[in-house]
């Protein structure tokens, strides 16, 4: 799609960038599609694998590097702080030079096409395409100043605060005087110790990008608070309260439910789900959905234990989503009569019928559950999942099992806790409405227009 339509000259050109990972790219693609539908011309920078999807929504695709180098070292490490730090380095920091080069080339091409075109950038935190320009990297040719940047955040807030412990250990917030003393000490220890490497590595990367200055403070603050504004894509109740939250960071609410593709082939057992939903009282069975997302593929962690936990419950239907097209259960795992297993199924197809969603705490899965008003069991400690799971528990709509491999007994007990306590469902529904009321896409559009040159 060319960026030269005269029909939308009055609107700024919207340039979007995200990390080339499905959990990051798909939500930003939803933003891109919404802006296209609202009359904006859009260019989306991402990797080759998303080209067709980006062009299908009416945006122009601009290529960026997927990931530099080999990631084999990561595969060998168990979940934990060491692996998280290495993931941040390899997935994101090391990609910064190539991603910022790609953004420079994109913006220069825009100037070649139209020297006067107004540009507003919507950047996803983990893209790393914009950060160098905020610390003095040479401007793209044709620009006297860098375009305004709206950063959208699709992970838990990592910023430091007097009210929270450092990101990583998944400790609850504490704003008492003793709690703040704890937080101060732990933050100092974390960033003088394990996290110091990230600060040093960021400084090295920014130097390679030709930056004239370095961030003051911690990397976990820098990549979220260096932009004109950062919109956290959840409601305030889904995060920890921070009395000192950086003024550039605001809550915009979760992205809304997306309409289902009418051509999506529903499974043969779908009529059982819809028929069950029409029943009343004790005749209606509880529907439990379990999925580990698209990254964690060891089905023995959550999917298999959940199937086994409820195998003898005639009042329960278990729907297991394996997360990858063509995936199957291990050959030694039997599927009981009350369970349905499917390789891929959109969350928003099944969650409206669900009483409980069991998930490893990925940000995307949590957002889908909240958008459908469904309480959760969360069980994950890899990447940002321990922190996300802790936030779900703190928000009051989830039971956190604090384990990557909780086992059938713990899953069963967690489900019973939720089914016996209506507070979990009520909180999930309140969060659903809170996010809907914020109108995330409307907030993003208004911010784009506010940054447009008058």
Q: Count every helix, treating DSSP H or I runs of 4 or more residues as helices.
A: 16
The rounded distance between the terminal residues' Cα atoms is 25 Å
Main sheet specs: 7 strands, parallel
Strand content: 5-15%
Which fold name corresponds to the CATH topology of the largest domain? Rossmann fold
Runs with pLDDT <50, length 5+? Answer: 1-7
CATH class (first level) name of the largest domain: Alpha Beta
Number of strands: 13
The helix/strand class is alpha/beta
Provide the number of structural domains: 2
Strand order of the largest sheet: 3-2-1-4-5-6-7
Protein name: UDP-glucuronosyl/UDP-glucosyltransferase
GO molecular function, one term: UDP-glycosyltransferase activity
Keywords: Glycosyltransferase, Transferase
InterPro entries: UDP-glycosyltransferase, UDP_glucos_trans
């Amino acid at each position: 799609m060319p960026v030269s339509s005269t029909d939308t000259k009055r609107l700024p050109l919207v340039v979007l960038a995200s990390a080339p990972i499905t959990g990051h790219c798909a939500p930003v693609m939803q933003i891109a599609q919404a802006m296209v539908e609202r009359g904006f011309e859009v260019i989306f920078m991402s990797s080759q694998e998303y080209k067709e999807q980006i062009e299908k929504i009416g945006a122009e695709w601009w290529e960026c590097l997927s990931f530099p180098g080999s990631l084999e070292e990561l595969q060998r490490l168990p979940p934990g702080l060491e692996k998280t730090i290495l993931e941040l380095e390899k997935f994101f920091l090391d990609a910064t030079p190539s991603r910022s080069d790609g953004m420079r080339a994109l913006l220069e091409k825009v100037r070649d096409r139209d020297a006067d075109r107004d540009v507003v950038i919507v950047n996803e935190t983990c893209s790393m395409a914009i950060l160098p320009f905020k610390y003095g990297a040479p401007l793209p040719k044709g620009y006297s100043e860098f375009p305004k940047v709206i950063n959208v955040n699709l992970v838990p807030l990592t910023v430091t605060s007097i009210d929270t412990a450092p990101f990583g250990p998944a400790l609850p917030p504490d704003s008492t005087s003793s709690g703040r003393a704890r937080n101060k000490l732990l933050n100092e220890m974390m960033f003088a110790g394990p996290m110091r490497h990230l600060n040093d590595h960021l400084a090295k990367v920014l130097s390679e990008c030709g930056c004239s200055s370095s961030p003051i403070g911690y990397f976990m603050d820098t990549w979220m608070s260096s932009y004109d504004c950062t919109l956290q894509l959840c409601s305030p109740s889904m995060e920890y309260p921070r009395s000192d939250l950086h003024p550039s960071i605001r809550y915009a609410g979760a992205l809304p439910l997306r309409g289902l593709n009418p051509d999506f082939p529903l499974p043969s057992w779908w009529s059982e789900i819809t028929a069950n939903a029409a029943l009343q009282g004790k005749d209606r069975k509880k529907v439990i959905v379990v999925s580990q997302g698209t990254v964690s593929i060891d089905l023995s962690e959550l999917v298999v234990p959940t199937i086994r936990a409820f195998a003898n419950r005639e009042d329960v239907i278990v729907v297991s989503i394996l997360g990858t097209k063509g995936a199957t259960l291990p050959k030694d795992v039997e599927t009981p009569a009350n369970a349905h297993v499917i390789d891929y199924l959109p969350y928003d197809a099944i969650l409206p019928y669900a009483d409980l969603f069991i998930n490893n705490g990925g940000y995307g899965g949590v957002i889908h559950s909240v958008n459908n008003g469904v309480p959760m069991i969360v069980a994950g400690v890899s990447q940002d999942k321990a922190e996300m799971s802790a936030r779900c528990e703190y928000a009051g709509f989830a039971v956190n099992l604090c384990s990557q491999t909780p086992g059938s007994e713990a899953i069963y007990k967690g489900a019973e806790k939720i089914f016996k306590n209506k507070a979990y469902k009520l909180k999930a529904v309140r969060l659903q409405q809170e996010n809907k009321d914020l109108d995330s896409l409307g907030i993003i559009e208004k911010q784009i227009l506010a940054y447009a040159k008058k």
